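Thread: Modeling a multi-component assembly for a lab meeting

Hi all, long-time lurker, first post. My supervisor asked me to bring a structural picture of a complex we are working on to next week's group meeting, and I have zero experience with this. I have the sequence lines for every component (223 residues in total). Could someone generate the structure of the whole assembly? Inputs are pasted exactly as I received them:
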Amino acid sequence: ELKVEQNPLFLSMQEGKNYTIYCNYSTTSDRLYWYRQDPGKSLESLFVLLSNGAVKQEGRLMASLDTKARLSTLHITAAVHDLSATYFCAVDGRGTYKYIFGTGTRLKVLA
Amino acid sequence: DGGITQSPKYLFRKEGQNVTLSCEQNLNHDAMYWYRQDPGQGLRLIYYSQIVNDFQKGDIAEGYSVSREKKESFPLTVTSAQKNPTAFYLCASRPTARGEQYFGPGTRLTVT
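Re: Modeling a multi-component assembly
Sure thing. I ran the full set together rather than chain by chain. Output:
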């Protein structure tokens, strides 16, 4: 059964600092997705990673995918308060048509 | 504008009543999904449909039912058999059975 784990589950960081969120998955998959969710809101797509070694950047966020290690990272550079949200990774379940979501990382950036 | 709409945004019902949540998309997507999210938790899959007139149970289908009579519509009925229906419900779609999912704004259901 495909499992997706994120860590940390909770992250409180100061503005201006850097940090990385990790997303590990248990079986082979070549597609990984990152989403952001603000409190009380729906999910907003951040990144779509489609192959080993893929790296994408948007503002202070950068995502990468290592399919051999079954690991994706979401790196935050010089955090600002507006990045406070919950971040989810998701993987296409091989042999199924379902997304498998990670547990989510609740990020709080302190001013 | 292309997108996914869910209605209503907030829904209040008495225990024992069935309620239907609407999900419509004009993206011409084949696949549609329903998720449930409880406070502070992740998303759990209720039902999904890869094509019109076909749908499959997800991880927590008990107490829910769906239909897919039209490509653009995938309504979810929360029945009285669902023990704890109060939650945030999200609908999503994607062009095919694999690839990025696009999410609607959600419906917050409260049952008392």
